[in-house]
Amino acid sequence: MALRDLAILGKSNIKKDAYNKVIGETKFAADLKFDHMLYGGVFRSSVPHAVIKRFDASKALALPGVARVLTSKDIPGGNRIGIIMKDEPVLVDDKVRRVGDAIALVAAETPELAEEALELMEVEYDLLEPVFTYEDAMREGSPKIHGDSNLHARKHLERGDVDAAFARCDVIIEGTYTTNMLTHMFIEPDAGVARVEDGIITVYASTQNAHFDRGEVARTMGLPNNKVRVTQMATGGGFGGKLDISVQCHLALLANATGRPVKIVRSRQESTDVSAKRHPMIMRAKTGATKDGKLLAVEVFIIGDTGAYASYGPAVITRAVVHCMGPYDVPNVRVDSDFVYTNNPMAGAFRGFGVPQVSVCHEGQMNALAKALNMDPIDLRILNAQKPGTVLATGQTLDESVGFIGALRAAKEKAAEVITTVKENQGVGVGCMWYGVGNTGLPNPAAAFVEVLPDASVNLMVGCADIGQGSSTVMALIAAEELGLSYDDIHVTAADTMVTPEGGASSASRQTFISGNATRIACRQAKETLAQTAANFLKVPKEYLIFRGRMIYSAKDPAIKMTYAELMAEMKKWGQLAVGAGAYNPKTTYLDAKTMAGIPYEVYSYGVTIALVEVDTSTGEVDTLKLVSAHDVGQAIDRVMVEGQIEGGMVMAQGFVIFEKIEHEKGKIKNPVFSKYLIPTTMDVPEIYPIIVECPGEAGPFGAKGVGEPALIPGIPAITNAVENALGRRFFELPLTPAEVMKKILS
Amino acid sequence: MRAFNFYTPKTLAEALELLAQYKGSATVAAGGTDIVIELKERRRNTDCVISINKIKELRYCEVAAGQVRIGALTTFSDLENNPYIKDKVKGLHSCCAHVGSPQIRNLGTIGGNVVNCSVAGDSPTTLMALDASVVLRSKAGKREMKLTDFYADRKKTRIAGDELLTEIYFDAPAKGVATATMKLGKRKALVIVVVGLSILVEKDDSDSITRAQVVVGGVSPKPARLPKVEEYLIGKPVSKNTFAPCAGMLSDIVGSMIPTRASMPYKREGVKGVSDKTFGRILVDFGLGEGGC
Amino acid sequence: MDKIKINFTLNGAPVTAETYPNKRVVDLLREDCECTSVKEGCGEGECGACTILVNDIPVTSCLMLAGQIEGDSILTLEGLAKDGELDKLQAAFLEAGAVQCGYCTPGMILSAKALLLRNPHPTREEIRRALSGNLCRCTGYTKIFRAVDMAAGN
């Protein structure tokens, strides 16, 4: 039985963007073409740490067809960008901090000429000693990458008396877990076009956050925010990798300097070399419980390498620390974490912001605990599961929308149905996760504008970037539900800074929750006027009115009703406009600097995966056969879209566990292309059984929470645990490539 | 991509004329799957590209006079879908069916793969196990040589600048011959070979092995015939027990071929599994087993 | 470098293109023929986003030089719908929810089209194999398999 009485939500619809995508009409940034357009390129450092002694572009400039070469001296505004800390140069001015730092820009008549010009540029470096490891970064007297310390961030979280609690434990599990650097491998490499018209710089870009881009471009150009327009083009996947500035500032500089439209399309290699990576982490954990399996204490120490620039590093460390004990009720918790700067590739946001990494740790610990206590791993989790009333390590008390136990039971039930036999060399594993929706302990509002037009069609304007996950569809469905109209009545314009209000990043699984709430608030505001007009016409108090199925009727007497067309005619007659502006900022608090106490998130999503794998013990190959994954999403807005997130997330989890790792040496990535960085193909993917769990709670729009990142996370520990189960051996480092599995088999 | 002149000869004679004219400085594109990347990434520079993909006379696979003759421009898909290859030369069929992706199999040619001679090249290992020969033509004439001789040195072949590899041929597997190929990769599609193994075994009426050709790929600049394993097999009965020790022999050989490479420990172990499976397929092909040693 | 003249059929219509020989087919189609549904994701034939059908056979257009398609019949996603009516595969991709970011979609649909042209009722294994040269990072492929099943009437 459905939890809520809804007319629109919880069904399946054809996504707003899908039709143009299946007929090949959708324009991505690289598809744009303007008259007199130039093609840009970026000259990048080949060394990880150096001062530039000499840079010479004279040969490039002499090449016919080269329009301009720009260096840091040509930047009219500020030369530091970054999502949280402004520590990355648009073009290197003081020193090079990584392989791939941008040193100069070129604009030429053709892409080939731009490429040739880059080959003609000359640079000489004074090499500085590079730093590549945590130990080197923290060593006294080590070369400093920024300022006077390589410590990028340090966090401490503490609740209860951890030492006393460990003394009372019957069983203590200790383990150190390592996850490696990963890359997003969105299929569309970063691209964009900029042009200047009537004093406005417009940047068309592949991006997850047009409004952030606007601010960075404006500061770089020394312009007010309203002289920069960033329009998000269809974006071919992001997963966190298109949150940082890629081509936007470079394009604005070139378009401004040449007075002509300029396009930059990164090659796959350039895209991988310089976009942010998943933070590699080392996690040392100690978990204590009673002999009955009740968790008493967890202590974790986390080391992370954010590379040359902060990017989303501060968010990743905070989120990792808050989530690293897992979705459990743990009364005593102590977490410490250090993230350092190195001359490695920059690490930042990647689907889950550190939670995928810590899930390897907390679930590795829970599975080991279940084994040590000879307990069923699901029963152990149910015993310790967070539920309404649980007090978190941050001191926050969960009040509603905690669907973890429901997800555990749903996954267990489905697994019993689809995993009936476990053959030799096969193994079953379980993995769980929780995920706070939105940014951690920080304001992160989003807004929406809505207008119901005279024919009862609707224009909805939201800042949130639809990168294929379907946020525009979600917003349309929420608006249709709230306004009592149909999905097809709603047209959504998204992520265009001259048209839409701020939406914040399409990250942190926040848009359904935050932009969704903003959309609902905007619709309610428009509905106020509509309801007043309808109330006057129908002569019933407006509180009694129900908007549903393109009708407005009295809850007391459904025979008292009018159509939307009649209502809009009334609105016109009385000179009324149905408009709304909504904004929503999740109810969180800043976290205490010393203990991290506070309310980091308004709601949490939960997920449970059960995996069946088979290991070929003669070659070390792991075949993922079945994945059952149950996700508490509060309320499904669109079922097929939720399933799509889960299926995509599960396959990304498979890549995380079995295939993927960025190999880098002396700061240079050795496998930046698809032929060397392997992601799962159609031949690799398992049967996936997505399960949608809904639960009471009204913080989100109609109770909805985010699922984008939660869809990935539990698959990672589940597949890992299944391999362990198949072999009867534990793994403490991912990925489990055939070579690593073979090594373990032989050990 | 830098500038170059471009030709699409329609006949072999036209192509050979162009090659002679450019005196070895031309680049030949067959399927183009390797060459176009090298040109795009500016790793290869050339004055001239001769695209031979429209030379219809070089795209065939025929069996005559006890030999299988394959035109150089025959694609992997052509061979994958060829009923004779599928039925009678299972080693080659399996090899072709697992090259790259469907799109690459549709473009990539067996001749191009042989001439390119990359470590990861799929077909040379198999063709060497079939003891194949190549036909090289130039305006001046025609040469033939065994594939083992064609691969001279590290990453080099014996093809001359004005020559075109036009055909690959090998003895049609007679009754009593079984072939099998397997490769170990890191995932199931679009795989680069970590270790490849291709085997031909011939037996007489009493199921005694009369000929064995065993080739390993992915562990040396060119695929390597393994006489030690071949000698061991000769005269023994076709059976699981005969084949089982090959895994250990292969493992030792692979270990000694790449003693210092970081990937050695895995390749040395992984090749055992590949050996068991490949010989298992030989047994299946002989109708003597269900696979696996 | 001299331009070369290439005659071919594009989405059913004869075309003569004059272009430089160092253009790849993906560049020719995108830049000279307005077929921007042909996507480039890797430039090394690994991702399949640039897949087109040449004489009904799927190939990666980033691995072909423009001059190599002389006389051939090319199909891109722009040419799949007939008179505004979607191909069964396009309709099925919509219905099944097989489209997320959409960057792999053109190549994916064309690989599936080539499969159905030669095998109208493929098994799941045949679908997996036919699409194994098209990478998707969003969907986990599951709804794409479903879409091909639907289009095949499986």
Question: Any overview of this molecule?
Answer:
The complex is a heterotrimer of chains A (747), B (293) and C (154). With 747 residues, chain A is α+β, with helices and mostly antiparallel strands. Chain A has 3 domains: 148 residues, Aldehyde oxidase/xanthine dehydrogenase, molybdopterin binding domain (Aldehyde Oxidoreductase, domain 4, 2-Layer Sandwich); 162 residues, Aldehyde oxidase/xanthine dehydrogenase, a/b hammerhead (Aldehyde Oxidoreductase, domain 3, Alpha-Beta Complex), CATH 3.90.1170.50; 320 residues, Aldehyde oxidase/xanthine dehydrogenase, molybdopterin binding domain (Aldehyde Oxidoreductase, domain 4). Chain A is built from 18 helices and 29 strands. In chain A, the strands form 8 sheets. Chain A has a 7-stranded mixed β-sheet, with helices on both faces. Chain A is globular. The mean pLDDT of chain A is 97. Chain B has 293 residues and is an alpha+beta fold. Helices cover 35% and strands 23% of the residues of chain B. Chain B contains 13 helices and 12 strands. In chain B, strand 6 and strand 7 form a beta hairpin. The model of chain B has no long low-confidence stretch (mean pLDDT 92). In chain C, helix 2 crosses helix 5. Chain C has 2 domains: 76 residues, Ubiquitin-like (UB roll) (Roll), CATH 3.10.20.30; 64 residues, Orthogonal Bundle (DNA polymerase, domain 1), CATH 1.10.150.120. By secondary structure, chain C is of the alpha+beta class. Chain C has 5 helices and 5 strands; from the N terminus they run E-E-H-E-E-E-H-H-H-H. The chains are: A alpha+beta (747), B alpha+beta (293), C alpha+beta (154). Chains in contact: A-B, A-C, B-C. Chains A and C meet through helix 1 and helix 16 of A and helix 2, helix 3, helix 4 and helix 5 of C.
